[in-house]
Batch of 2 targets.
Target 1
Amino acid sequence: MEFLHTYDTLKLEFPLVGPENAKFVILGVPFDGTTSYKPGTRFGPTLIRQATLNLESYILDYGIDIAELPIADIGDIAVIAGDAKGTAKRVREIIEELKRTNPDAIPITLGGEHSITLGPVEALKPASYVVFDAHLDLRDQYEDNLYNHACVARRISELGIREAIFGVRSGTREEVEYAEEKSITWVHARDYSFDAFVELVKPLPEPVYLSVDIDVFDLSMVPSTGTPEAGGLRFWEVIEALEWLVENKKITGFDITEVAGTELGDVTALTAAKLLFYFIGAMGRDI
Ligand SMILES: [Mn+2]
């Protein structure tokens, strides 16, 4: 199966299957067109794949080897430099094509800045959007661009999709007011707990799309990210929430965005790679 606008890259090292036979389909979106502080998200997909080479595919606490699961890696999307809207459209078209051929596939999108999440969300049309992010991303526009990374949750809410945002410690008064007006629930990083997560996510309609902006984690774990913020979540807090979601809700797609490293061994990419393996492992327990 060939996709328009994709090209080969370094792939995950374990045995892969074609996208038509896969449960999990990885695609990279190396886009950093609207990054406002620290550039480098264009290297995110490659750095995350490189970081996976350091990890055992056996997930110790699950007793499951993800290398035995049907995983495809369709490479990276040829992004349109500086065009977040156009790039998200390409992502959407590729995921739509994938779902036509393999309706059971779970797309896993590796960013790239957070603006690219609009692509898989438009393709998959989830009922709810659950996101871990240091930022609300509810701005109407940023730097005159409706498709800036700081606006992605706003664009998604405009599609009529329910939202819950966790680990937040940055936003504007306007964003808070918009969230209030649209009943978008969010939990500040200081107030985050597993119980708070379950309480807000439990009533959300299915299927759910899960997005992790890597900047949700404590800064020490993710120093290379587009808009770093001190005071984030611990690794296992996010994994426990992810496990609850996998066990209790139908998940239609997943992404990891805003990894902005520049060299092999990047700490942020290592955090993202471990998160990727846990997502696949947690989902794989059901297969
Ligand atoms: Mn963010």
Target 2
Amino acid sequence: MIPLRIACIGKHGQTAQALAGVAAGYPSIELHQAGREAADLTDAAALEAFIHQTQAHVVLNAGAYNLVDKAENDEAKAFAVNAEGPRTLARLCNRYGVHFIHMSTDCVFDGAGTEPHTEDESPRPLSAYGRSKLAGELAVAEEYPEAVTARVCWVFSEFAESFVSKAIDWARARPVLQIVSDQIGPPTYAPDIAIALLRLARAKVESVRDLSGLLHLASPDAMSRSDMAGAIMAESQRQGGPFARIEPVTTAAFNAPAKRPLNARLSNARANEALGLNWTPFAAALERSVAGVLNRTAS
Ligand SMILES: NC(=O)c1ccc[n+]([C@@H]2O[C@H](COP(=O)([O-])OP(=O)(O)OC[C@H]3O[C@@H](n4cnc5c(N)ncnc54)[C@H](OP(=O)(O)O)[C@@H]3O)[C@@H](O)[C@H]2O)c1
């Protein structure tokens, strides 16, 4: 198979770590990753140097300002990282003839309705984070129409920090956790996203498909946040880890600083058709994720 050189930004994040694990199984893939220290999204010279050093066929941006609540009071920083960073990358990739895959979020939608959001639907973000990510999508499309923006949602895994590691941490400290029950989304296993991104990268390089624009990478199984938290607690207890009782609350009662879409479902029909994807069943993915988190955090 033709070698595929990928340069990934956001090395220490969940998707990037999952990508490293999956790519290690493919000798034809040469994965270069840089964290904020080497490739800060607000440092155009560092991004350009990273692209040159790696001689990448594909640049993947898995870095982001992801502090959804904090962004409400830090919108300028969120825009610098989530909008201007991707704009710079798209411009550089276009200039140097390198394929570009960017990542975005369900938070570009207002979450109306109960059907999965499609790529054709008009976005209407409810939060500063969502606005910054939408601005990033638009900047990428403007600078480099051939680029792909992959929207993902409720990503979880054994890697970095996710809802799984957070819920287990909270359960170490509190016997009862209040979790919202009216936000419904598709918990999506980071290694499944990594496989999809690698297929997408290969499809771009080999021009087997004419893929550009938006692509939703999300599991077909949707559930509430409180049901997801309940499943995490049950699996943690089953594996000898901490347990807390889940108390479902409404989003209105929880009153977080940033508004989140109540319907976070994303339709994966376009991605499945283009890339032939399989999604790990939630129970199997959760078992691996909880095992990894408990193993990592065992004292
Ligand atoms: N996690 C989710 O549930 C979720 C949901 C929807 C969309 N997404 C999107 O999916 C993509 C990947 O998310 P993820 O969950 O894998 O990310 P993550 O685990 O939150 O990691 C994000 C990474 O971005 C890095 N970063 C922050 N500021 C940066 C900067 N100025 N320059 C370069 N890197 C910077 C962070 O570096 P440090 O390690 O140095 O802090 C971190 O390693 C992002 O675009 C995110 O918006 C994620």
